[in-house]
Amino acid sequence: MLHWALLHDKAADRWHPIIFRPSPRPSDDVDEGKYCRHRSSGHHTQGFPSKAEAVASMAEEQIFATGIVLAWDGQGIPATTLELPYGRAIAPETSASPAP
After folding, report:
1. 24-42 confidence digits (pLDDT tens)
2. Which residues, 6+ apart, have CB-to-CB distance to 92 below 8 Å?
3. Contact status, residue 83 vs residue 96, Cβ threshold 8 Å
4. For residue range 53-100, what is the model confidence (pLDDT) as tens digits?
5. Which of 8, 34, 45, 56 is most open to solvent, judged by the fewest CB atoms within 10 Å of its CB?
6. Which pLDDT belongs to residue 93?
């Protein structure tokens, strides 16, 4: 299952939903619910003028929301990895973190 976060382009003040796909390391335990590496695999190119519009654009998707907002300076390619639970949503009492 895929996850999504928001990418905030601070230079243009635009909000971009960004998708994360599982990309476990060979040493990652990929049982459902275990955390493993997820790589960004694309973001909404044009973005949205508000955070609310960006979130609403993802409401119909069958993708887990992470609640994460990643800052971006608008330069280069905004590729990153996150540690997210494999195959399930993030529990309300936990959070994801950028991979080392």
Report:
1. 988 887 887 788 999 998 7
2. none
3. yes
4. 999 988 878 788 888 999 989 888 888 999 988 888 875 444 444 444
5. 45
6. 42
